[in-house]
Specification:
Length: about 210
Amino acid sequence: MQPFRILIIDDHSQAREGIRDILEEYEDFLIVGEGKNGEEAIHLTEELMPDIILMDIQMPVMDGLEATKRIKLQFPYVKIVMITVSDDITDLFDALKKGAQGYLVKNLQSELWYEYLQAFALDEVPMSKEIAFQILKDFVKNKSEPAEKTPLSAREFEVLKLVASALSNKEISEKLFISEHTVKSHLKNILSKLHLDNRVQLTKYAYQQGLMD
């Protein structure tokens, strides 16, 4: 398997160096470039076509949230993980609404960084209950249309609800007595049928359609 191509965007050189030191130890990640603000992030994404961008939130010229929104509009398949010193759920939820699919706090142990990014790269990162709760608060209040008829099978519907309940692929497989590979297949089919891209959007969909208790 080819290594995942990583682009690091942070206005502090020491932070970029620290991230580089963590990831260079592992053969499944390849750092293809670095930048120090949102404008550089957009330019480097066009030039280097990374698989994953590690994006700081607070930066001069253009912050990470605005850059994330613009990059996801142009390159929706590029995965973006926000990196920050803050563990404020408001920052996290704002980043997710802009299109980011993940969130890392800089003071996490390096082993946890690797484990998270590896799972993230393989689409195995579960959504935390805190994120699900914030999505519930933000989107349910906007629900005015009656729920549409779901195109999902009964099993896919089960998987959707468990994803929206913040379970990981492994936890879903154990709960439904199926393999993780089967869970991933169901998840892929669900995303395709609903024309969605990731777990965040699935959770938003589940709450908007009134599928969650």
